[in-house]
Structures are given as C-alpha cells and as structure tokens.
Amino acid sequence: MKKLLSTMLVGILALSLSACGNKATTATSASDDGAKTSVIGVAMPTQSLQRWNQDGENMKKQLEAKKYKVDLQYANNDVNAQVQSIENMITKKCKVLVVASIDGAALTDVLKKAADNGIKVIAYDRLIMKSPNVDYYATFDNFKVGVIQGQYIEKKLGLKEGKGPFNIELFGGSPDDNNATFFYKGAMSVLQPYIDNGKLVVGSKQKDFTTIAIQGWDSAKAQARMDNLITSTYSKGTKLDVVLSPNDSLAIGIVAALKNAGYGGANKPYPVLTGQDCDKPNILAMIHDQQSMSIFKDTRTLANKVVEMVDAIVQGKQAEVNDTKTYNNGSKVVPSFLCDPIYADKDNYKKILIDSGYYKESDLK
Ligand code: BGC
C-alpha cells in the first residue's frame, strides 16, 4: 500500500511537473508570440546594389532582436535562383516569407506552394504580380518617388516661373519591376505639362516607357543608352540640361557616359540628374556635382514596418496597412503599407543621412 501510495505520489508529481513544463513552454511562446519557434524567410534580389544589402541586414537584425530565426537569401538577380531559394524556405517550414522579387510575375507557382503549406507572404518594396497568394505589401510610395524627382527638376530649372525651354532626356527602370512604371508615371505627372507647352524638349523624342526602360536596372545598359543619346542628339553643340533617372544604379551609368563625353568641365557642366536610394557612390557624385539629388528611402523604416507585419501575422492578427486601393497585382488588390520617401541633395544630405545615423561621415570619402 505504502509502495502504491508513493508510486502514485511520484506519478502525480511527475504529471504536475510535466504540466508545469508544458505550461512554461506555452507561456514562453505565447509571451514571445511564437517568435522563438518561427523561421522567417527573407528573399532579396541581389547583393550587387548597396540598398538590398542594407535591406537584408536591417531585416535580419530587427527580426533576430525579436527572437525570430532568419533565413536570408540573395539571388544574384537570377529569377530561377530566387524561386529555388523560396522553395527551400518552404521546405524548411518557414512561418512567413518576405520577398523582394526580381521578376514580379515569376513567382506564381512557388507562392501557390507556400499558400498550400499555410505560409503567409509579404511583398517587400516590389509588388509580386499575378498571384492571389500575396498577403501584404510594404513599400515606399512609389508614385510619390517619381513626383519628388519631377518636382526637383521643376524647381531646379525654374519651370514654374516660366523659364525654358530646356533639353531633357528620360530614363525608366526595369520593365519587370512593377515599381518602375509608378516612378515613371509619378515623374511624368509633373513633367508632362512642361513637355506639352514646350518648356521641356525631349531631344531624342524617346518618351514612352518601353523605349526608355533599362532592363535589370543595369548601370552598363544605362551608360550605353546615354552614350547613344549623346552621339545622336547632343554631339553638335545642343545643350543637355536635365536627365530624369529613376534610381542611382542608372544614374551611375549616365554619369559615366557624360564624363566620357567631356561633361564636368567649366564650359560643360553636368546636367541636372535625379536618382533614388542614396547609395554611397551617388552621394559622392552629389558632392562632386555630377548628380543633383537622390530619393532617400530609409531601409530601417521599411524593415521596421515589415517586422511589425511579421509579428502581427505570427500572432494571427491583421497587420496595419494604409493603402487598400493602389496596388492591384493582376489577381487582387494587395493591402499595403506605404512609407514616405524624401529627397537628399548636396544641401541637406548631412542632416538627412549623417545626423540620422544612416551613414558615417567617413563612409562618404
Ligand atoms: C527599388 C529601387 C531600386 C531599384 C533597383 C526598385 O524596385 O524600389 O529602390 O533602386 O529597384 O534595385
């Protein structure tokens, strides 16, 4: 009897201990909202551009600070490699996928697989097209990026005050990136009226998006197109006053072509030139009067927003969005959170980029 009693006691003790244990485990994951057990897959397009390295690092840092496990992969701008790494993340049973796509329309099948496995998907910076399996989109207001570039040109040239005519050339981003047409339309919403009234003259007459788009956001392709424009239109003394470049990787190629053609001398200053991302080489180009401005999209802010979305998803809640109309991916309107872009130029870059801790002064040497 005594033996039976003691066996029962040990049993009860063991049971209650294991219940405590269970409770403790449940309590930990509840208080961490499941973070400790969740792997988050982060698929970035390429390491060849500075911004994506920063995006990746910020995402990893901020997710790990919240105790998530992070599987961060880059795909060297290779669509198949990106599909492959997303498949691996699905196999590893990640809880949420965060994807900055290379070709926005190439992920339909792999995202179907993700959905079949109960994995939620956040499109990061670039909208994923032609898929119902995109739960959220976090980005900067892409139309506004173009508007700010257009307004910068408007102000620099004094177009509102009736100055002109000025000669302009237009560049567009990669046609497989949904953002590219938003940047173009935003900029043209400001510039088109001046083209219509003759205050801006597109010397080459190349205006429509398909003609001016640069596949893969490739600097070398932008340089080659600028070389051609200089030869065809600006080699016989016609002055080039302004170039609309949607981002910094294109601006780098454009500056290289202009430099080779002798721009930068006393009689041939660089044209007004826009950009986006505030990559370090481009800030240097601004300091040296080769590029006029760049849009600053603080990747810390975007990462922060996406981590908030991940948290909400892991807790089974709705994530906060501020736009439910703009981003139709051909299959659905994706609930979006749009962060606010601003611009940096030679006059304000110290305040915006250095005082905010984004760069150190020594980074910009
Ligand atoms: C991003 C830009 C970037 C470009 C090239 C776009 O989708 O929004 O910030 O410059 O891709 O990487």
TrEMBL record:
Q: Which residues form the Periplasmic binding protein domain?
A: 40-318
> Do the record's keywords include NADP?
no
Q: Which InterPro entries match?
A: Bact_Solute-Bind_Prot2 (IPR050555), ChvE-like (IPR049784), Peripla_BP_I (IPR028082), SBP_2_dom (IPR025997)
Tell me one Pfam family matched here.
Peripla_BP_4
Keyword Signal belongs to the record: yes
Q: Which GO terms describe its cellular component?
A: outer membrane-bounded periplasmic space
Listed GO MF terms: carbohydrate binding
Q: Which domain of life is it from?
A: Bacteria
Keywords from the named record: Signal
Renumbered to this chain, the signal peptide range is 1-19
Compartment annotation: Cell envelope
> Per its UniProt record, what PANTHER family does this chain match?
D-XYLOSE-BINDING PERIPLASMIC PROTEIN
Q: What is this protein called?
A: ABC transporter (Substrate-binding protein)
In which organism is this protein found? Clostridium scatologenes
